Amino acid sequence: MQYFVRAGTLGDGVSVAYANHEAIRFDSSPGQSPTLPCPADLLTAAFAACVLKNVERMGELLSFAFRNAGIEVTAERQDRPLKIGAIRYRLTVVTDEPPARVRLLHENIQHHGTIFNTLAEVCEVSGEIVAIAPASLPTL
C-alpha cells in the first residue's frame, strides 16, 4: 500500500496539501500562524486520526460495541536535536464493554496502527484509554 500527497505554497506563508480529494491548508511561514495548523499539528493530527481509525477498525474486528470515541494528543518538541521527543494521548470511548475488553481494544490499537507504530519507533509514545458508560452521560 502507498500513500500520495501533493503539496505546494500559495504565498504569504500558506501552503496546501492535497490528499485524495481533500485540500488541507497549513502554515509554512517562518513564524507561526494564529489560525493555520503547522507541520507539527498535522503530525499530531495524523496520530489522532490513526488511533480513531483503529478504534473503528478494531471495533469491527473485535465486535467491540461503542457509541463514539474521542482523543486528546500532545506532542512535545525537543530542542536538541530538534524533533518530537514524546507523544502523549488520552483516548475516551463511550461504551458498556467490560474493562478487560477495553484493555484488549487499547492493546490492539497500540500494535496495529501504521502512524502509531511509525512514531513509536522514533519517539516515546504513551497514553491511556478511558471508558465512559453511556448511562453516565448527561442528557440534553
Structure description:
The protein has 140 residues and is of the alpha+beta class. It folds into two domains: 1-37; 39-136, 2-Layer Sandwich (GMP Synthetase, Chain A, domain 3), CATH 3.30.300.20. 32% of the residues lie in helices and 36% in strands. The chain is built from three helices and six strands; from the N terminus they run E-E-E-H-E-E-H-H-E. Strands 1-2-3 form a three-stranded antiparallel β-sheet, with no helix packed on it. A three-stranded mixed β-sheet has the order 4-5-6. Strand 2 and strand 3 (22-27) form a beta hairpin. Helix 1 packs across helix 2 (99-111) and helix 1 packs across helix 3. It starts with a strand and ends in an 8-residue tail after the last strand.
How much is the radius of gyration in Å? 17 Å
Determine the number of helices (DSSP H or I, runs of at least 4 residues).
3
Task: Give the number of domains.
Answer: 2
The portion of residues assigned to helices is 25-40%
Morphology call: elongated
Write out the CATH superfamily name of the largest domain. Answer: K homology (KH) domain
Largest sheet: 3 strands, antiparallel
Content of β-strand: 35-45%
Instruction: Give the rounded overall mean pLDDT.
Output: 95
Which structural category fits the helices and strands? alpha+beta
CATH fold group of the largest domain: GMP Synthetase, Chain A, domain 3
